Amino acid sequence: MRLLVVGGGITGLAAAWEAVRGGPDRAPAEVLLVEAADRFGGKVQTETTDGLLIEHGPDSFVSYRPAALKLADELGLSGDVIGTSGTRVVHLRSRGRLRPLPSGMGMVLPNRIGPFVTTGILSPADKLRAGLDLVLPRRLTPGEDVAIGAFLRARLGPGIVRRFADPMVGGIYGASVDELSLDAVLPSLRADEVAHRSLMLAAIAQGRKARAAGRGPGSPFRTLRGGLGSLVEALVAQLAGAGADLRLGSRVASIRPAGAGAEAVFADGTVEPVDAVVLAGGVKSSAALLAEPAPGAAAALAEVPLATSTVVTLAYPAAAFATPVTSHGWLEADPAPISGITVSSAKWSGRAQRDTVLIRAFVPERLGPIASAGDGELLAAVTRHVGEVLGATSEPGLVRIARWPAMMPKYTVGHLDRVAAVEAGLAALPGWRLAGSALRGVGLPDCVADGRRQAGLALDAVAAPAARVEA
Ligand SMILES: Cc1cc2nc3c(=O)[nH]c(=O)nc-3n(C[C@H](O)[C@H](O)[C@H](O)COP(=O)(O)OP(=O)(O)OC[C@H]3O[C@@H](n4cnc5c(N)ncnc54)[C@H](O)[C@@H]3O)c2cc1C
């Protein structure tokens, strides 16, 4: 059994890992993994320079979705997994200044009434309007997807959307809550309305439950001591050790069904026969590769919009700040040329020497023209703003700009219909599966879980067609 994996990002590598390991009901498979770039990792890109550890793409993953932790464990990296350090205080810049996020803050609301009443993030009018949620009837129609922003605005008012939901949710998905799908991104909100009617009552009930279970407000974020690149390195080394054929700088130009399997055609014209296929090259790559063999799936996939985002890294001398920068960062609810920053040197150990403050600032396309400005203009706007908010007395000594153009899938309203259409379009090619952030979750744990699951499904489909037909 030979599996072709297109793409050597975290999804493709996880798919390959699943295949070479096999399972209780599946023999280990041969793997041919093809990566067009000259390095593995895709969006995972770690740079070490001048005593700094810089993440140009993702910098961490959440622990409550266990797939990334499990993978690290299987690779023997459990001892290298680290949690956040220092103060663990995150701020929101709202109503003119930095204010700490209320304790027990979820994606939309805190899970206790006290911090909600006392926070200065919201104005008194915002709080009064949000309180209406306690008496409003249910708003959602079963089976009808809506934008998160529209739903929250109707229940909790515009203040919560602008000052809590958009910075929190938009910060993760790189898109505005006014375009993101409730059912694909925050289905728990629908479940909350069904069960409790009021989202505030639902949040309070969840807070009580968490406290009764002894779950504190600790940070769910984890990363690796050596950066996320070390996860990629370990995967690549162990895949190679297990005999996987890993090719860098090689692009799959097309794939065509051939007998019970498929043939991969490379950019240089060579052809390789395989039994099963996992497409993990992203929305555009997969839509192009499916255009001929599965046009319905390709068309549905191509409808997933892609967001552009930029990460600007700034390393300041610690002496540039009158008081030590101990906050883990902030999200912006006020107008700004960034959506927020992470203070990597405060949030994680081993990211910078003591005399350096390492910051990564985010500039998503939803901020408008600044997101497409040239490097000089972008850098000037970001350093001016960050420097002003933190009171920097000097310029950063090192800067980096990492641009991610049209690379973040946006789960907009109707996303789950698109997922169903892609699945339906792929039904005629049972050994072909699509994996990664395009459809079922953009976070690293989602990508790892999906890569592994889709590799298993692709291999099972071609290994036991009779059983599948009977089922
Ligand atoms: C700036 C930024 C910050 C993020 N922060 C976080 C975070 O902190 N935590 C988190 O959990 N997630 C985060 N994410 C999301 C997460 O990084 C991605 O969803 C995930 O890395 C996607 O992995 P992937 O393997 O599916 O795709 P990619 O990493 O995009 O990899 C796809 C690979 O396929 C290759 N490829 C494409 N087509 C072909 C072809 N035809 N032939 C050969 N190779 C091909 C590409 O060269 C690429 O290397 C962030 C994303 C970005 C952009």
Give a description of the structure:
The chain has 471 residues and is α/β, with parallel strands linked by helices. It has three domains: 2-40 and 228-304 and 411-470, FAD/NAD(P)-binding domain (3-Layer(bba) Sandwich); 101-212, protoporphyrinogen ix oxidase, domain 3 (Orthogonal Bundle), CATH 1.10.3110.10; 306-409, Polyamine Oxidase, Chain A, domain 2, CATH 3.90.660. Helix content is 37%, strand content 22%. It is built from 17 helices and 20 strands. A seven-stranded mixed β-sheet has the order 8-7-16-17-18-15-19, sandwiched between helices. It has a five-stranded parallel β-sheet with strand order 10-2-1-14-20, sandwiched between helices. Strands 5-9-6 form a three-stranded antiparallel β-sheet, with helices on one face. Strand 12 and strand 13 (271-274) form a beta hairpin. The longest helix is centred in the last third of the chain and has 20 residues, at 444-463. The protein is globular, with a radius of gyration of 23 Å.
